[in-house]
Amino acid sequence: MRADNALAVGAARALGLVRSDDWPLIAAHLLAEGADGPDLAELASMSRGASGWAVDRVLESALAEAGIPSVEVERAGEVVARSLAQAIRRGGKSRDHVIIRALAELGPYDGYPGGVIAEAYYASEWLDCECHRVSAERDAAHELETRLEALPDLDANDALIQALFLHIVESPGAAEPP
Could you tell me the pTM of the whole model? Predict the structure, then answer.
């Protein structure tokens, strides 16, 4: 299995982006990418409606079998940014500062972590205020989005990345302002 697949899953886990009922799908993607193990196979065989208790019973050992690393929250933010930038380059719909908006939604997680999540959280304050349409802060937000869009691709399965991260772009705070 490619290292970036494992990194992406570890990042999503660190940020709490995978719901219990989504882990069977993630496990199936990991099996398709070459990871193996009885608990991983059991997790992949569960239905989407499997109880959180059933998923939690095998999740730790399944992720260990797949070689999923523990990822620091700050590093996880960078992985999310890389994934979103990659999706935009591959034809995903780019909206007004979509990466900043998605990362800013993660800001309240775990006591406002540092790194790119903190940068995006700060920058997001300046995106929708009419009084800051022409300001140094708005220019800095544009520069941050440009820098994030230029991050290198992950060497990871596109379907796995979509299952892990692309739903955060559709959250209410990440959408374009009315």
Answer: 0.87
CA distance 116 to 161: 19
- pLDDT tens-digit series, residues 133-142: 788 888 999 9
Express each pLDDT in 77-115 by its tens digit. 999 999 988 888 877 666 789 999 999 999 887 677 889
Token duo for residue 89: 């380059």
